[in-house]
Amino acid sequence: MQLLFALLAGLVFGGGLILSGMADPSKVIGFLDLAGKWDPSLAFVMAGAIGVGFLAFRLAGRRANSLLGEPMQLPTSRHIDRRLVLGSLAFGVGWGLAGFCPGPALLNVAVGGGKVILFVLAMLGGMALFELSAKMFARRAG
Amino acid sequence: MTIDWSNFTPWSSLAGGILIGIAAAMFILFNGRIAGISGILGGLLRPRKGDVGWRAAFIIGLILAPLVYGFFAPLPAVHIDTGAGLIVLAGILVGVGTRYGSGCTSGHGVCGLSRLSPRSMVATAAFMSAGFLTVYVARHVVG
């Protein structure tokens, strides 16, 4: 059941990305291009998603378990540190360069062609680099 | 600033955003998890027992979405103007950055802002500003 709902959530999320236009990197770059011809569409995507999300997370916050009986795994960290800011800045530069964030990139893996595959492989490489460095730091600290 | 009226799609973008919100709502209410895509994918690179299935299922759903969507409506075109070298650099920055920053547009931008998390507000402000600045430099300074 848990797997089925995860698959469904992925499908609906992907459908939303396509309908919203955000599956197309040029549309995302159109939003990020404040000094050029600016396309405000992404703000409407965020408004729609956060409107629904706000209600859902308020409901979720009152429950100890999910509807399928899984423990509710809400983030607990409240720490605003250098890692959070520097990591997000690096992500923003990559996002601006290609117009891809992780969702739309994965979404296009089967249909988007060579450059999408190249981006996803590089993204996985970047994530692996993070895992490696986290392991190295843990070893040094331990 | 001039508005690009020819590409502006308020209604389909709002509707798509609502669908994204419904997906995030389903995922937290049924599975008890945050629909943060970089976190879901990143966790697969550090596989732990009992933690792989739901991650893989979500990602497979995302990858199948265009194929299912295509049954009902024509798929919009995808334009990638960035060259291969910059695509690789961008991919590495997105991969490293989302893991160090503990989230991306879905985890911090959608789920975090919905929870009114101060951490996610800072992260979203950081990646949005970096995105605006990068496109400004790429399109109006260098390009």
Number of domains of chain B: 1
Q: What is the end-to-end distance of chain A?
A: 39 Å
Number of strands of chain B: 1
User: From N to C, what is the helix and strand string of chain B?
Assistant: EHHHHHH
Question: What is the makeup of the main sheet of chain B?
Answer: none
Shape of chain B: globular
Helix proportion of residues of chain A, in percent?
Answer: 55-70%
The percentage helix of chain B is over 70%
Taking all Cα atoms into account, the compactness measure Rg of chain B is 17 Å
Number of helices of chain A: 6
Low-confidence stretches of chain B: none
Q: Tally of extended strands of chain A?
A: 1
Bulk shape of chain A: globular
DSSP strand (E) fraction of chain B? Answer: under 5%
H-E string of chain A: HHEHHHH
Q: Would you tell me the overall average pLDDT of chain B?
A: 96
Number of domains of chain A: 2
Describe this entry's structure for a reader:
Chain A: The chain crosses the membrane at residues 41-61, 82-100, 106-130. The complex is a heterodimer of chains A (142) and B (143). Chain A is mainly alpha-helical and 142 residues long. Chain A has 2 domains: 1-74, no CATH class; 78-141. Chain A contains 6 helices and 1 strand. Chain A has helices at 2-20, 25-32, 41-61, 82-98, 102-107, 114-141, and one strand at 37-38. The mean pLDDT of chain A is 95. The model of chain B has no long low-confidence stretch (mean pLDDT 96). With 143 residues, chain B is mainly alpha-helical. Chain B contains 6 helices and 1 strand. Chain B starts with a strand and ends with a helix. The chains are: A mainly alpha (142), B mainly alpha (143). At the A-B interface, helix 1, helix 2, strand 1, helix 3 and helix 4 of A face strand 1, helix 1, helix 2, helix 3 and helix 4 of B. Strand 1 of chain A pairs parallel with strand 1 (2-3) of chain B.
